Amino acid sequence: MGIRQFSDFKAELKVGVGKQSIDSIDGVDYSGKWINSAYMTLATQNRMWGLKKNFTFPELETHQTAVTEDGSETVNAPSNCIIARHVWDSTNDYKLTGISFEDYITYTGRDTAASEGKPTEWVRNGDYIYLHPTPDDEYTLYIYYRKRPAYLVADDDTTDIGAEWDEPILTLAKSIALERLQQYEASKKVRENFIDMVRGVVGIYDQESFDRQGFRKVDTSYNRFGY
Fold this sequence. Notes:
The protein is 30% helix and 18% strand. By secondary structure, it is of the alpha+beta class. The strands form 2 sheets. Strands 1-8-3-4 form a 4-stranded antiparallel β-sheet, with no helix packed on it. The protein has a 4-stranded mixed β-sheet with strand order 2-7-6-5, with no helix packed on it.
């Protein structure tokens, strides 16, 4: 996870914007607010600035178990869930099919005991995961999802994402701080630097797909040489 502690982030941000007292204006810890704003903005993005593809942090992909109740069509979604990815029934050893909420509400007879059974479909709506058919027993479900990380609070708190993101978080926080301090041109230049950093760091994650996408195969241009 991150190397910089919350106190390190705040101290470096104050030096970076040339405002040694930004954490004591009217008794408000502005440096901490701007660090957390940058952290949350980065960690909850679906598509990074300047990139043409979606991106997710592996460290924020997790799962939580939930146990169904006989006759109850829902289980609670994880409280820090941004996006529910998959639902797997570990009791019956199969993956449920995701559907839209519009499809779910077209199902009739959901409240009758005769229509209950082993759930085969799911959809998240608000704080709940809706299941169909309505469960007829207790089943243990694994809910796989992208989580929202916790705010940095204590001085020794570190981020939930890799240390390679510490510098981009600090740079984005600097851009946010300069904008709040009405230094718009300086904020814009720092933001451009941040985008360049993001491009470079995301490239590290691309290496994990090296084997999966077959990059070790011989280039097709060598086919004519008998490979």
